[in-house]
Amino acid sequence: MDKLNNSKRAIKGTITKIETFVEESGNHTPTKLDIKLKRVQEMNRKIYELKDQYYDIKDINESELQVIEADIQSMEDRLEELEVRIRDILNSLIAKSSVSFVHNHENAISQTNSKLKLEIKLPEIPLPLFRASLQGDTKLLEAVDDSFESIITALKTRLENKRLLTETHINAILEIEKLTSESARDIRTMTDILSKNIRALKLSGFERNNLSDLILLNIILKKIDRETRKQFEQSIDSKQIPELDTFIMFLEKKKPNYR
């Protein structure tokens, strides 16, 4: 277990370095932020693998496992907050680049028009391409062509990352695999995915309410195995509408019994 604890400490150190970069760096650029975002996603994958390795230890007692789970949960929370903050900074930089680009575009048109002699009939001149007007990391935008409309479309696509991120978290919940039998690892995976994506949505500004909880609960109830569903129904008042938190707590209490 010492090797796993060392790996956990290394991941913590990396998270701290990324937090320091986000909080203290005065030279954020889309390229640097994109690299840090990929690093955050890499740390999430390592934590997921680390968690499985801890669960595979057969002689670990429940109290030790609870401490480890709480520590890993804290690391996941920090990574989720970092991901949201980095994406927000990225979107802000892209928005500023968009405004600057439009301003440069208008100036270029104005300069072109000032050089035209209106008394001379000139052939129709197509609008110039303005890739050269882009500066810094905005040049890395991928567009169908170099026209103003195409690049603005690319900028808008980049600004819609929050929507794509939100859809990713919702789909992660909807696509949780259905359980066919009682399994400690499968139950842990289900609760991890559910809790992680609910927290991520909250960090993005989407608060839970009674309706959302009821919908989520009914989605997840259809994904657990028959025996677990039966035990949950027996643990609650059949006349009362069950709550999502009650269900999650039920699964958390059941996990030690599956080991």
From TrEMBL:
What the entry lists under InterPro entries is as follows:
DUF1759
Question: Which residue spans adopt a coiled-coil conformation according to this UniProt entry?
Answer: 33-92
Q: Name one Pfam family in it.
A: DUF1759
Q: Which UniProt keywords apply?
A: Coiled coil
The name this protein carries in UniProt is: Integrase catalytic domain-containing protein
- Origin species, per record, is Trichonephila clavipes
Upper lineage ranks? Eukaryota, Metazoa, Ecdysozoa, Arthropoda, Chelicerata
Q: Which gene encodes it?
A: AVEN_177244_1
